[in-house]
Every structure is written in structure tokens, then in C-alpha cells.
Design goal:
single chain, about 210 residues, alpha/beta, 7-stranded mixed β-sheet, 3-stranded mixed β-sheet
């Protein structure tokens, strides 16, 4: 067992309620991510962007819902500059009242504002409508396991948003994290958690189940 999974075993507590175990795991892994050197994050981000650009080249998604990385999350938004269709299909999250969120169009030369939790978000833009088109959602992730269970920030915005959509059949969910946080031990999952279809790390795209 490698060091990252040994660490998870050490912080997992038998007979602990799933929510508590999840919080313990999240705090430990987020601390590991915070401790990463900036050059490590930058190198991983560049590799992730390269894999994303190559993979998107053969896809016909009507929209790409991405994110703006913070706190040592892999940075992915520069990849949109290499997407010939980026002007019409890249969207980024915006926090709304009532602990909700949506995605709006943004291009790298447009201004941003500091939103909730200090996360930068578009000032304004066309709202992403999920109806009748294939959408790729790239989710920032603290960790992902081999079954597609994703460990998010804990605020639940993405899970609430995804559960609000009337139809997920044309939505592809890809978690993004550094490879050290793609873990072998199962992440505690709750009934409201939405599993992902794949994980994207500096080592490439790892698919789960039936996903082309």
C-alpha cells in the first residue's frame, strides 16, 4: 500500500458515522494539498491542461462547465484558449443566494469578482442552460476513489446543483485533482452524493464504468 492510502487508513475511524469520517478525511487530505509546493501544483496543472486539451479535441460537447482553481486546486481554465470552440462553450460557476449556484459564460480577458469563500467568479454572462445538449462538468475535488466517489469541499454546492437538474443523462461529470488524491480506499459516500464518470489527473483521464 502506498503512502497516500496508508495515510487514509490511519485517519479512518471504525464505527464512526459516515459524515464524521468524511470530514476527518477531507480535512487531512486538504491539509496535504495545502502543503504542496507551488511548483508541484503548477507542473500538475500544466499536465492536466494538456490531457484535457487532447481529450476535448475529439469531443462535441455543447458546453464545458469548468472552475477557477483556489487553494492549490489544479488550474484548468487556461486550457480553454486551445479550444477552437471556447468562445461559445466554456462556463464558470457563480454562487447564488440560498446556497445555490449556476454557471455563466466567461472568457479570460473579462473581469472577475471575488465571490463567496473568496472564490473568483464572472461578473456576469450568459447562463448555461443544460437542456438538449451534451455538457461536460469539470469538478474541483479534494479526492476521488476508484468507484467514482468524489470528496468535495464540504459545502455541497455541486451536489445540490446537479440534483436540481431534471436530466443528467447528457451530463458527463469529470473530477479534477492531483494524482496523489486519486485514492484506492473507498471514500465515505452519502445518499445525496453524485458520483463522477471519470477523474482527470496529471497522469491522464481515468474512466469509471461505461464511459466513452
Amino acid at each position: 500500500m502506498n503512502s497516500r492510502n496508508s495515510m487514509i487508513s490511519k485517519i479512518s475511524v471504525n464505527n464512526t458515522p459516515p459524515k464524521d469520517a468524511k470530514s476527518i478525511l477531507r480535512d487531512a487530505l486538504r491539509a496535504q494539498r495545502t502543503a504542496m509546493a507551488s511548483h508541484e501544483v503548477e507542473e500538475a496543472s500544466r499536465k492536466i491542461q494538456t490531457h484535457l486539451i487532447q481529450w476535448l479535441a475529439g469531443k462535441n460537447y455543447g458546453a464545458v462547465a469548468a472552475y477557477l482553481g483556489i487553494r492549490n486546486e489544479p488550474v484548468i481554465h487556461p486550457a480553454m484558449a486551445h479550444d477552437p470552440a471556447h468562445e461559445g462553450r466554456w462556463y464558470f460557476p457563480r454562487v447564488l443566494p440560498g446556497e445555490q449556484m449556476d454557471f455563466v459564460a466567461w472568457r479570460s480577458y473579462e473581469p472577475l469578482r471575488k465571490g463567496k469563500f473568496g472564490i473568483k467568479e464572472p461578473l456576469d454572462g450568459q447562463r448555461l442552460e443544460f437542456n438538449a445538449r451534451d455538457v461536460l462538468v469539470l469538478l474541483p475535488s479534494v479526492a476521488v476513489d476508484r468507484e467514482g466517489n468524489r470528496l468535495g469541499s464540504g459545502a455541497g454546492y455541486y451536489d445540490r446543483f446537479l440534483r436540481s437538474l431534471p436530466d443528467l443523462s447528457r451530463v458527463t461529470l469529470v473530477a479534477v485533482c492531483c494524482d496523489r488524491f486519486f485514492v484506492a480506499e473507498r471514500i465515505p459516500a452519502e445518499t445525496f452524493d453524485v458520483p463522477v464518470h471519470a477523474v482527470l489527473t496529471e497522469n491522464g483521464l481515468q474512466k469509471f464504468g461505461k464511459f466513452s
